[in-house]
Records
---
Amino acid sequence: MTISPATGSPAPGAGLPYPTAPTDLGPDALGGAARTLAASLTRAIFDRREAIELVVISVLAGGHVLLEDLPGTGKTTLARALAQSLGGELRRVQATADLLPADITGSSIWDASRGGFVFAPGPIFSNVLLVDELNRTPPRTQSAFLEAMDERAVTVDGVRRQLPDPFLVVATQNPLEQYGTYPLPEGQLDRFTMALQLGRNSLETERRVMHAHLAGLPLDEVTSVLPPEGLVSLRADVHRVHVAGPVLDYALAVVDGTRRYPALALGASTRAAVSLMRCVQARALLHGREHAIPDDVRALAPAVLGHRVQPLDTAGAGGLTRGAEAVQAVVRATSVPF
């Protein structure tokens, strides 16, 4: 889906001053640290400021990101740039039809030296898990991500194991009309804080990408600008952003509007409403504010809610796009309560 703000609201990222180097990560500079993270991504992803801001907001909100688009549009590059910028441990999984749940979570293996079974952690035990082409793995394997994404833990052989903090999943998928893909169920889509598309590059942007690759890989220019403990502090500060009652009521009106919109068979869930408000807080912090405003809700609702609703017409591809367009229509029809 191509995300655009509701009419009358400023485009996400418009006029946002992205510094080029990190400074102090103390409490007074947390908003600046978030903008530094966004700036780091622009070294590998050109002219995608809106998408970059949305991804950073999702990370600050403690959520997971789903990037859906055609091959070669920069999904994996953006995911890898985010992982490299955050530091910590990065693990990557290439989803295939024969991938098993144990390939994700890990399993117990026989250790002859110890005379017993020992647990061998899978790639999910990382700070950033990049899952490339998630919808190419079957539902049984997709289910291995559910507990981890919702509870930051996995249960293997009856033992519950906590994942590192922070933990986030950045997944990519190709449109569903392509051969050999498995649609993600609603329950799994609901665990992604945001789903968005990058869209095709303009010719000028494509020229910049080609020119940059002549000198090397742009990803080589991306280095860690925010350690794991810095992200944990940022997320704690997001929780302290003030959300006034009228802003909360406005967000609830938008969420409830999706449940009554005639073109939707399924509206947004309560989990979606909570995710929207957490992202609203994160956007306020990124823009240097200690309080949320209605424009935060308007700018984020399509990306946060679009993949969680189900259009009546589910035939063919483009369900996520139609969902975002329906949410955008709900936003336009919902009056700001003050």
---
Amino acid sequence: MKKVYLIVIVIVIALAASACGSGNTSNQPIPTVVLGNGATNGSPTQPAAPLISSSGGVTASGVVVPVQDAQLAFAMAGDVKKVYVAEGDQVKAGDVLAELDNTAVQTEVDQAQRTLRELTSPASIAAAEEAVATAQKAYEDAQKKVDSINYRQANQSDIDYYKAQLVLAQKALDQAKDFSNKTNGLSSADPLHASATTNLYNAQRAYNTALSNLEWFTNKPDENDVALAKANLDAAAAALQEATWYVSKLKGETIPADATGMQLTQLEQARDNLKAAQNRLDHTRLVSPFAGVITDVNLVAGEYASPGQPIIAISDVANLKVITTDLSERDVANVSVGQSTTIFVEALNKEVNGHVITISSVADTLGGDVVYKTTIALDELPEGIRAGMSVTVQYQR
């Protein structure tokens, strides 16, 4: 107690000496006197100093912000049918937040679904499989035709046989002609004349067949016949392939990207139409891109929404980060991605650890000074921290 009394006396003496001075009335600073308990005579409202050491490295001011936030707008114009949320509501990713009047678009989706459903029905699949079987038979027949043209030359024994058949047919034809000539004077109703006429007709047909068979195996194939047979085979092969691709697509199997066919094109067009209609329907709804809190709602049901007009704002307030605002160009060279930091949250009078995740490549200006923005990830979230709070960041050496 004696020590305290002595200090108070010194203060009183100092004040008296000042009052009895040479008449100079200018304000003189009152010296700060440290008392025994370490208190000062400063203002009782003096703020507490940051916990961060001033010699701990580069420092910068910053602010706490959500890791994600978004201004949501419709991609198409229309009248607002319903708004499902209000400011302050918590939502999950995928929740519908607002919706335009989409009656006409829903009709397009329904029609596209019906068309695709008809094309992919069990009856359509059965018909497509039947078409594959028919195309397979046509291909096999065309292949046989080509083979018969390419490989119709027989061996010498076969050729001798067909020559002998032609000789016999020629002899039979000559005999039939002689017999027919002998009956020319008879009435057409005479049985003998009728028999001669019939024999001549049959003998001529037998001769023509024998001659054709011999020529088939001895003469060179006609170029037009060969070209036509090959063209028919190519067409049959293509038809079989397209029919097979179509069935595979109907069954959900993988087919080449360059697969063709009228039915395949029709099926893919139906699926594209449904996808486009569904996309238009999706564009009539605002969906939350992530879980968060609705921070602003700018439109009500019945109002007209223009494309790109911000309607709803959402923030992920459960996940926070720090953005610095005044890191000097003189200090940014001492900062690197991954560098550890200590963040002092002024409103909470607490420190929390973090690390640098991004450094802006482009500078900003602040009061004429060149500064760079850095983004800090918080290793933990202290209780009570909120977006918008001011912080001081110290980058560890």
---
Amino acid sequence: MSIYLSSFWFTILSLINPFGANHAFHLSKCLMEYNSEEKAIQISMHIFLDDLEDALREKGHDKLFLCTPKETPEAEQHMEDYLRAHFKLVVNGKEKTYNFLGKEASEDLQAAWCYIEVEDVEDLTELEVSNDLLIEVFEDQKNVVHLLGPNKKRGTLLLQKGRIKEKVVF
């Protein structure tokens, strides 16, 4: 009986991972909402900080200390550049540039919430999302995109290696 109990606690402790070592899965989530009053697509992205720092390190940007008091002055710019290279939107058939509004640490300090916005979207009828965040670093990376479109239409996209782009018609 105690062998099973020990095995159980070992499994639980390795899942909890209190020492901040690499986690067992690689996932980002993105919440996109069309605000017809403001004629804008408002986006919140949740990205694990250790994964993002690994990706930025591969680009030559090391020791950025994202979302900490020791964050380097150029860290946010490197983060924004990375997002622009790996997250793209085509709105109603036209590629759109978005505004990077900023970032903040998640409550558990393990991830960053990044905020971006696409302005001047008169009427959203079609949206193409291209999201290959962190896929170049982690083979098993999954990027989930939750959509809230016109007339409160909801949808969810799962983007991953081999399938980084998806189009939705509202």
---
Amino acid sequence: MLALLLVLAGVCAAQSSAPVIEVPNAPNSAAQQAKPYVVLVSLDGFRYDYPKKYEAPNLVALGRRGASAPEGMIPAYPSSTFPNHLAIVTGLYPEHHGIVNNSFYDPALKERYTYSDQKTSLDGRWYSGTPLWSLAEKQGMRAACYFWPGSEAEIAGARPSYYVHFDPSIPVDKRIDQIISWLKLPAAQRPHFLTLYIEDVDGAGHQFGPDAPEVAAAVKHVDAEVGTLAQKLDALHLPIDLIVIADHGMEKEIGPWVNLNQWADLSQAETAGPLIYAKTEADAQKIYESLNGASDKFKVYRRASIPAALHYDANPRTGDPVVIATGPYPIRAIAPPPDKDRPFAVGAHGFDPAIMPTMKAIFFAAGPDIRAGAELPPFENVDVYPLIAKILGLEIGAIDGKLSPVESALKPPPQK
């Protein structure tokens, strides 16, 4: 019986924690040890209005003692998970950091990227820009990631000193415990930039839709975990700024599937979800002409003519022509065989936030560097990068994000 209990205990431990991968990076320099700490938390799919819609007292309290964006933070197009998590940590739009959708085709490499395939998601070739963890490590400051899209790949020649392979079975409380453990390390090894990723709200939103009681329950659960994290961080008595954001919002999807090959011959094109990669200029124009005006559920553009506000015209990975949904419609280039088809999700995202405000995400921040009671108007999520770099005193290169839209969240420098 004792042996059985020991085996069961080992199984439970394996299911409730994940091994930390430690990279032999240099320790924190003396100058970086004196810097503050930033814990960046992503609550995937946490729509900007959920705190009021479903009550999230811990997030609201965080905003009251620090900063918030009551009308939301604007995701990059497409408002999908991987493109926006990389936009947040690189300060670049998807067309510039390279992850233009959760799955896409690269005409130059003649290869496909799929976020769920470790052969591509862990391959640094696909990523451009310098994530905050790589920026920190290159400047003598340690970083740690408990899940974050891209954090398992070597990007810009660096990895975080500590990271964990994504495993959705790991409970949130165990993830929080690891964050606290990292912050209890000796000063030379202790990370100053840390990420934490929590996916519960997104999963509920996809399965049940944003108005479902299951989403309300997920919001309350995740909000309670944020409260626990905040309490445990306060107990460390370190100068920690806690920033809690989301990658995108959620909307109820309206079916049926919109299959683009209903109007255009795509048999000679590469496709990935709604993305189309014509093999020749003539083919691209022919497909464009076939799709243009075919349905009120989408608009179609040649890549060079995509509206500038979408920041989606500079990378061949976005395809050509490019189809943009006009509402929460499930669009795909080609329907799979009937035996491999699947119903569209009840809740979805990926849409243009200018058309659908429900794509906007939360932003809350509090800590010694954050001004209490600061309320920011809607700003783009690429602006988070210069905000965090400013707090940590890291030098940054050319990015799409700007500090000016979020600078009022920071406390003014002390008077000399």
